Amino acid sequence: MQIKNEKEIVEVLNQGGVIAYVTDTVWGLGCLPQNEKAVKKIYEIKKREAQKPLILMSNEVYNLLDYVEPMPKIACKLIKKYFPGALTLVVKKSKNTPDYITSGMDTVGIRVPDNEVFKRICEIIPGHVLATTSANLSHQPSAKTYEQAFENMDGLADLVIEDYGCKCKGMESTVCGVFGDDLKIFRQGAINISLD
Which of 45, 61, 93, 179 is the least buried, fewest Cβ under 10 Å from its Cβ? Predict the structure, then answer.
């Protein structure tokens, strides 16, 4: 998979910019996790409440491991079963995950979307991880097409990347917290979790 403006994507992110992109669920808005200014810009763009954390997404779960504490067996089982896919897993964060991403919480959401354009973006960017949320204003519907994402983010995001025909399915990810052996569903989305 090639994206025609790969160099521009890397430059925008390195300069503290914010990009909008397709995932397997809905359109996302993201930046490099180490850039606090860029993260603040996402909150400003979305008019997002400060107590709502961003999540971390990558093309490979391996790239996310530095950001989390060693995970319970049950989390590893869910990763094996549902990654890549429409599951956001909330687990204990490591000291490498900045508080400005998690709204000061000691947990962080991680996800590996199943979308070729998103995977390619992660392959080419420094660190291969994006701090991310959905590409819409808070309390507005998520963007499900390039046109909607462009309308939502035109003049706000630094770059809205085409989907190259890799459309999203239009339903948000299921958000599941793993606390020891306990699971807590924070949002029921595209995946119905089962441990069988």
Answer: 179
